[in-house]
Design goal:
The chain is mostly beta strands. It has helices at 31-43, 105-108, 112-116, 130-133, 167-174; strands at residues 2-7, 13-18, 20-25, 54-58, 63-64, 68-71, 76-77, 80-86, 94-101, 103-104, 121-123, 128-129, 140-147, 154-160, 182-185, 201-208, 214-223. The strands form four sheets. Strands 3, 4, 5, 8, 9, 11, 12 and 15 form an eight-stranded mixed beta sheet that branches. 37% of the residues are buried. The mean pLDDT is 93. This is DUF2848 domain-containing protein.
């Protein structure tokens, strides 16, 4: 289990002990596009899911609010996502925050679920109550930028939340699985062509174009020491 603390716009904080961590995958709102993407990944050796959207249980201790992500090699990358945090038993206790599912791309070709459990799910420290924004989720932008070798920051992902299945879909589908202490990551949007995803730094934001409010996270990717033996 892992303890997270979220800061809300009304200057209150909510502490959550994570007991269940779920990563959605292939969760685009246009499932025909998702099917085409699955076919593209299959050509790269990534095994196709048995069904879409998919859902991958992840070890709860991998949910983290950190500025550094340790990795075992250079072929890992983030994924811009939203995260639904079930902080209690009422609709007021459903929080939305920004997230990055940092994934091991070498391991991904052997099993997507394995790759999700080989890296941290980084979550923002700020959050919104879902009830306050669910009427205009399609007006919220999800963006990510990367930096490599001390160079200029580059935009790598950009879409509105209309591109992803909404929180309500998962609330209806999963029902009683979403007990207090559950964190669900949304799945991600397409990366822009020509940008190197194997970067040193990631920055991800949720930007509400109606209210002007922004949730943001950023972290450095740090290569661990090589194993001995």
């Amino acid at each position: 289990m892992n303890d997270l603390v979220f800061h809300l716009p009304d200057d209150t904080t909510v502490a959550v002990t994570v007991i269940r961590l779920l990563n959605a995958g292939y969760a685009g709102s246009d499932q025909d596009e998702v099917a085409a993407h699955v076919a593209e990944l299959a050509e790269l050796g990534v095994p196709a899911p048995k069904t879409t959207p998919a859902l991958y249980p992840v070890a709860p201790y991998l949910a983290a609010q950190v500025g550094n992500v340790p990795v075992q090699h250079e072929r890992t990358s983030g994924e811009a996502e939203w995260a639904l945090v079930v902080a209690g038993a009422t609709p007021q206790d459903l929080l939305l925050t920004v997230a990055s599912d940092h994934t091991d791309r070498e391991l991904e070709v052997h099993g997507v679920a394995w790759s999700k459990n080989a890296g941290l799910d980084v979550l923002g420290r700020g959050a919104w109550r879902l009830v306050d924004i669910e009427d205009h989720l399609d007006d919220v932008w999800l963006r990510a930028w990367v930096t490599r070798d001390g160079g200029q920051e580059q935009l790598i992902q950009e879409a509105t939340l209309a591109a992803l299945l909404p929180p309500k879909y998962w609330l209806d589908e999963l029902g009683d699985l979403l007990v207090p202490g559950t964190v669900l990551l949304s799945g991600t949007v397409a990366m822009l062509p020509g940008v190197d995803q194997f970067a040193d730094c990631w920055r991800v934001e949720l930007a509400d174009s109606v209210t002007g409010k922004v949730l943001e996270l950023s972290y450095r990717v740090e290569r661990m020491l090589d194993p001995i033996g």
